[in-house]
Each structure stands twice: as structure tokens, then as C-alpha cells.
Amino acid sequence: MSYKEKCSNCYTLVSQDELYCPFCNEQLKKKCQRCNKLIEIDWRYCPFCGEFKEIVNYKYEGNKNFVKRF
């Protein structure tokens, strides 16, 4: 296992092939809806096929189980 990336949430070193951080469960990568290749969660476009990916921002409000989309 090669550790080449840091989790954007807890900054722990994670493997390039991990979809979620094993320490804090932050989503790191997602499959492109068009070509199904793994892309970084914060990329707006797939570098393989050019598909635009909607970025949705959430924020926690008090209770960690409740998130509000803004």
C-alpha cells in the first residue's frame, strides 16, 4: 500500500486507491457518472471524459447527524 495523499478532513495519509478515509470516513474519490473512472471528490470535471460534476456543499448545524445543503 502506498500512501501518497492526505485526507482533506483529518490530514491523515491515505492510499491513492481508497474511496473513503479509514480514520474519519471522509469521501475522497467518486466514480464519474459517464465513464466510471475514479476522480477526486472536489474536481468539477472528469479529466478522462470531460463530464461536468455538480459540487454540492453541506454544512453541519449543531447536531452532527443533521446537515443542511446550501
What are the key terms here?
single chain; 70 residues; mainly beta; two-stranded antiparallel sheet; two-stranded antiparallel ribbon; 6 strands; 34% strand; elongated
Notes on the protein architecture:
There is one protein chain. By secondary structure, this protein is mostly beta strands. It has one domain. It is 0% helix and 34% strand. It is built from no helices and 6 strands. The chain has strands at residues 3-6, 13-15, 29-31, 38-40, 58-61, 63-69. It has a two-stranded antiparallel ribbon. Residues 66-70 have low confidence and may be disordered.
TL;DR of this structure?
With 70 residues, the chain is mostly beta strands. It has strands at 3-6, 13-15, 29-31, 38-40, 58-61, 63-69. Strands 1-2 form a two-stranded antiparallel sheet. The chain has a two-stranded antiparallel ribbon with strand order 3-4. The protein has a two-stranded antiparallel sheet with strand order 5-6.
Task: Please specify the SSE layout and strand pairing.
Elements lengths: L2 E4 L6 E3 L13 E3 L6 E3 L17 E4 L1 E7 L1
Antiparallel strand pairs: 1-2, 3-4, 5-6
Biggest sheet: strands, sense, closure?
Answer: 2 strands, antiparallel
> How helical, in percent, are the residues?
under 10%
How do the strands line up in the largest sheet? 1-2
Q: What ranges have pLDDT less than 50 throughout 5 or more consecutive residues?
A: 66-70
Which structural class matches the secondary elements?
mainly beta
Number of helices: 0
**Share of residues in strands:** 25-35%
Number of strands: 6
- SSE pattern: EEEEEE
Rg value: 14 Å
Tally of structural domains = 1
Q: Report mean pLDDT, rounded to a whole number.
A: 79
Q: Which shape, going by the Cα principal axes?
A: elongated
Q: How many angstroms separate the termini?
A: 37 Å
